[in-house]
Amino acid sequence: MDKLIAIGGGPLSGKVRISGAKNAALPLMISSLLTKETLRISNIPHLHDITTTMELLGQLGVKLQVDETLAIEANASEVESVIAPYELVRTMRASILVLGPLTARFGRAEVSLPGGCAIGSRPVNLHIKGLEAMGADIKIENGYIKADTHNKRLKGARVFMDLISVTGTENLMMAAALADGITVIENAAREPEVIDLADCLNAMGAKVKGAGTDEIVIEGVEKLGGADHRVIPDRIEAGTFLVAAAISGGKIKIVDVIPRQIESVLDKLREAGCQIETGEDWISLSAPVGKLKSVNVRTAPYPAFPTDMQAQFVLLNCIAGGTATVIETVFENRFMHVHELQRMGADIELDGNTAVIKGVGNLFAAPVMATDLRASACLVLAGLVAEGETVIDRIYHIDRGYDCIEEKLAQMGASIRRVPGHYFSQQSA
Ligand code: UD1
Q: What is the Å distance from ligand 1's center to 420 Cα?
């Protein structure tokens, strides 16, 4: 297994381009299941989760073509299977997104239950409840969710989401696009990725209104057509690079980004003492001359502070001056990075969903292990500011969601390299 080696050093500087958003690209690719015609999606990031989604769609019978610019053409005119197997779903929970489109277009779907993951139990009850409200008969058998409409079209329904769920909203929005009648999703997720999916569905001929608000109204149509859609920029990748620059005392400009989509993160970086300027599609950040100030953070659904930026801000607080509280309200067990940061000298007290972080100024290199996608980004960044050489293990997590992270960081002056696993066994032999 590959590892990353990061050597703590000077400030990051320069310009970096933000890739297309993973969390937008996955549902967009999966929405190709809703039509016989070709859907072209550009600005696809180069990520392992994208490969997994291609594998999943390929197994279902979707024909895929990728060009040199990383645009994907997906054609689902000859779908042969409606089964999303355990082997794929367990590596990528977002596979659950095929449930809605398959049930809506083919009247049947079998999707493995995703099971637990490093950041909590992550149930899919809201996806199931919504489809049941639309008339699907759903059974859980042998670890699979089995949906059947008994050859009838799904029916429009009013669905209230007890909890705000991003993929839950997306799954139901896709299903409702082909249902008979009007569906109203109340307490819908307002994330930019939900809006991006709605825009693409509308380009395919769907009638979706209200995406970006907490009430989405979808008037079902009989069939959808093809479209050409560009994935929005990855706001979490953007936020991660901004934190990297801030904690290293650097000055960077990120381009191909939509600043208003990370307003909550920019606010916290300003509060920490960074100078931020924004244009239509760029953000520049200059770290303060002295220490960063500690900032309290509370994660919540969009437009509040994103849970996917929580780990990076725990790290920022480790090296800032002062004490801060970080409260995680979205996932039940998303503080795995805390134990690794403690091994690097961080002073963090954990109590349930709250971390109290006392800034220690400096971290020290240590061998650390990535546990989930965002935790692994936090550890890479920690390695860039810690004294010495940090070896980060289990980096397959980072490859799931960050496009060429070490190249992009190196481009800004970071000392970071990827080393194949066998290098270490040779060293210890
Ligand atoms: C998506 C993002 C992920 C992000 C998360 C929260 C994708 C592919 N992934 O994940 O990066 O961290 O939103 O912003 O877009 N819940 C239930 N029942 C359900 C569904 C969700 O109880 O049926 C709970 C979850 O356990 C969690 C909360 O709702 O506590 C929010 O989860 P959700 O928004 O669904 O996360 P994902 O869509 O899986």
A: 33
